[in-house]
Design a protein that fits this description.
By secondary structure, this protein is α+β, with helices and mostly antiparallel strands. The chain has a single domain, classed as TBP-like, CATH 3.30.2030.
Length: 120
């Protein structure tokens, strides 16, 4: 399994950060797979799950309030199916690079800075 997680601090409120990301990525209607958006108080969570014969993927973005705006947690996981699971080490390497690009893009769009680094 490959996993990437990063936490970003943005001066935007959770609702404004979500609106900005949704405007760029359309995360409220992610496809293929199933996308879900849930709001609890001022925290917003968006997730997407998809699968094909080779792998299953899950992406989640959590927008939570902070004293200076919001904390955005981006988590992505990919799990290879058997028999290609033997390629997990290569997937982890590639996923780390892809995750970093996504995190840099999120930071740029949100005017955010990385708080907690990758968990690859």
């Amino acid at each position: 399994m490959a996993r990437y997680e990063v936490v970003l601090a943005s001066p935007l409120s959770p609702a404004d950060a979500y609106a900005r990301i949704d405007g760029v990525t359309g995360c409220s209607s992610w496809s293929p797979g199933r996308a879900e958006a849930a709001a609890g108080g001022s925290t917003i969570a968006v997730s997407s799950r998809s699968s094909n014969p080779l792998m299953r993927t899950t992406d989640e973005i959590l927008f939570a309030p902070s004293t200076a705006g919001s904390l955005i947690t981006y988590t992505s996981e990919a799990r290879l199916r058997w028999p290609v699971r033997v390629l997990d080490p290569l997937l982890r390497l590639a996923y780390s690079r892809i995750g970093k690009r996504v995190a840099n893009g999120l930071a740029r769009v949100l005017g955010a800075q990385e708080v907690v680094g990758p968990d690859a």
